[in-house]
Fold each of these.
Amino acid sequence: MKNIGRDMNHYLDQNHRREKYADIISRVKNDPDVRRFLYTNRNELEPDAFSKGIAKLYEFFNEKEKIAKHEDNFAPGYFPRLIVNNHLIDVSYEPQPAKVAADAAAAKAALVDAAHMPKDFRNARLDNLDTAGREDALGAAMKFVNAYVANPKEYHQGFYLTGDYGIGKTYLLGAMANELAGYQIPTLILHVPTFSVEMRDAINSNTVLKRIRQVEGVPVLVFDDIGGETASPWFRDDVLGVILQYRMQERLPTFFSSNVTMQNLQENMSIGRDGQDDSLKSNRIMARIKFLAREIEVRGKDRREEIARRSTE
């Protein structure tokens, strides 16, 4: 914190304005907040606390005026408050309501790690969803949130949302994640096609295992658009399989969204290198997915088309 008293004396000495010192003292002393503080704490302050604390009183007065005039101040987002410190006058800074609200919103948003997700996803709410065709999925999401919040140490099975492109599967899962964030429960949402590319890049930097460790143990994990990634036996077995195995063993809530059914996903994953049949490995992956999640079909209108239509009206 800069020395307000030293700056004030420098200002007075260098600019030959010491004659205004008395006026400044008078304005500070007659400030309603200063008067109230001095009267309220008169029995706690030393007899010469005013003269010893003039720099602090000026700091309080000056910063308060800047805030009132919407000027740049010493601690943006914070309001000065006079306090008694060892029987002398001091200044502390408390966050303004807008600052408190902004910090709370930022902390809540940080609980949902959702890179590569649409912007409207971050404002998704379960109570704002169009329920037509989504009744089962919405009911499952609400039931999960209530059950997990009530008993976070118990195992709660996730769900696998399947349905056409654009009908709101990811949006619903994002709404659920935002709801959980309100209870300080973090969620990681992975866009699987993007994640698979990132993991292949991680081979060059030798950080594959590190990235897997970062993902596998998060409290709530969502695999978004699984089945949309380029077929890769390595990603299936050494990345996805490892993460799913860990979460199955640790009984960690895991969710999926996909444009294909579980049956179709199993068939797609059964294609190995050079077209060989990898049904055994595919079955192993799907056994983990089915343990972690139950399949729910989502219907409804294409949300993207609806949003585009509204934007042109």
Amino acid sequence: MATKSILALAALGAAVTLAGGCGADAGEPEATAHPTPAAASGAGMPAPEVELGTRGTALGTVLTDGAGFTLYRFDEDTPTEIHCTGPCAEIWPPSIGTPHGDGHLPGTLGTMTRPDGAAQATYDGSPLYRFAKDTAPGQTTGDGVKGTWHVVTVDAAHG
């Protein structure tokens, strides 16, 4: 009987940890986690292509993925290290693959290697993520979450 209680407490602790991951506030409904592409791509396999585009929003022109969903950057990432992993990457799925655009994107496209070995798309050196709570193209509900998540804006005058 004690073993069942310990297992139940462990499961509860794991659920609380997952809900409290990067960007989820305790008072917000739990995000619907999209499968993390990093787990599917695996190290050593060719990286898929990530189609990038733009969309006008109330926040300005933002970078989007091929399905029109807004892409975000995380302030805690650095030019050499990705910090959104584990439960964080379930709420903020990384854009896995090599980015390409239609030639009209003014920023620099690239990739960074995630801790699991997968290539994550970058724009102007920032790793790119979606937000699991954005349920339709053009939504920007992740902007400002925890003060560390921001839409990636695209400035046509950028050079």
Amino acid sequence: MRFCPRCGAQTGDLPAVCAACGYAAYLNPRPTGTVIIVRDGRFLAMKRAREPRAGFWDLPGGFCDGFEHPADAAVREAREELGVTVELGEFAGMFVGTYEFQGERLPVLDCFWLATITAGEIALDPDEGSELTWLPLSDPPEMAFSTMDRVLRGSIIRNSSVRLVS
């Protein structure tokens, strides 16, 4: 059962308009920002250390904070998860997907950018990932989320000239 965030009256599933106060509540996708670091026909991936989808290959990225732009979230997430500074390149795509959280299936709006590492040594945050490797763009494995599968199979990624700066 859901309750109105304004007056606390009982409501139905979203979208819903509260019969008591008229407040309209919607189930909007949560935006994310993700980087795709490409080098020599490979992309940098990490194995997820936590649910959802622990043990699956993942790209560095995550949810936007408050009013944070997805591009800024992508840069922040790369710093938090890999310990590096990245420069965003070409926008690679935006896809609607799902994310399982606290027993709910939530809509997400996943935004992807090609990126280049400009500073720092890669140091994987163990809370985020258990393994880090370069995987082939020509035959990527199943990723943690379907939006990642879709962007990695797209023409922008396969034709990318982005290179890792050492």
Amino acid sequence: MPFSSKTARGENILRFRRKRDGGERNSPRLFGRRTRSESDIEALSKRILLPSLPVSDEEMARATHQDRGQKLARQEMWEELSKQIQYADDCRLSTPGGEIASMLLAFGARSDVVAAAEDAIADGAVPDPVGIEALEEVQTEFYGDHCCALVVAMAHIDIGWAWRNAARDGLHEEKVCQKHWLNHFNRARDILAPYDGIDLDAPSLAAAQCALTAAFRQKGHRVADDYAKLIDLDPDGHRHMRALGQHLLPAYFGSYETLEVEARRTAVRTAEVWGDGGYAWVYFDALAMDRGALDLLDAEFFADGIRHILEAKKDQHITNLWAAFCAVNMAAETDGHLSTHADATRRHLHNCLDWILSDYLQELHPLVWSQALLSPGLTPALPSRRALISKGRQTALRIIATRFADDLADGSSIAFSPAGMYRLPGL
């Protein structure tokens, strides 16, 4: 698609020299080939006129659901919380960016207990059992309520993963971490055993059960089949497709071959909602976590999937999500571990940034770009919110400036608006 190039005077002044031969316009640090100083890139980034939202609609919507869940749990209004989770599942309620409201409510409800446990584990201690025991009392009092069971089981799953991460980071002895991990996951499995998320038409419950299935050593087809039922239950929820891809990686007892097959199957099953987008969603987190998946990926199919997603979901959070993925997660590596084919595929996906910027990006969501810089699946100690926003904005503007450095060399600027990206001549 051509760039939108109308200025206030109606002049067609955009003459970007876009490289379509597979080459990349690179900065010294991020992309390596064309040498420009840090100060040059910093100066050019000041001529990127892109509205920035420190707090997006998506973030406010997520906070609303999470805060409501947390408030109801703190006030011990479990019956009301259960009703709201059930309602959100029944209506397939989601945020503007497609996050599932029922899961956000459940996250808020368990957040105090989980945060306290994670802090204790990170400090090298064993969490005080008072918090999880209080949730267990709720499970006993409301036995038979699958929404309350969801909250308690997910708290065990979250704490279990905190122990697993502690083993990886060397915070505790591996045997101790393994014991706690297994205890929490087994308890979560026992809590959810009486329920079936598919039969109850509850995507949040089905998602929790899929996460449990993937955590234990299961054959890839079992994980894939469970997720297929979940995705059929809630095809609008891209989080399910992303989780499927992550849990089919070799690190989760899957394989690249199974990942490729299931990505294609998902694209077919969700075509009415996402076009080819299901293929891209399944690979989204998987590629960010493990670039080995590039070897079997169909780059053209993936790129078509991105465009279909951006057409189906005209939301700037989603646009920023994919722009950051292509710019940051698919940037060139310095270690050179990719095969020739995988690197060519990576380069193709990285170059999708050009048309995402020109055809779809209208505003910058800095936190999305900051999150792309973090290791997927990990929970490191985060900088302050202000620092994340600043880093995300700086990263995005520098990447965009680097991408179009040649076109900015004459003193012109690049501006973004709902009408598209256009070029302003220098004074």
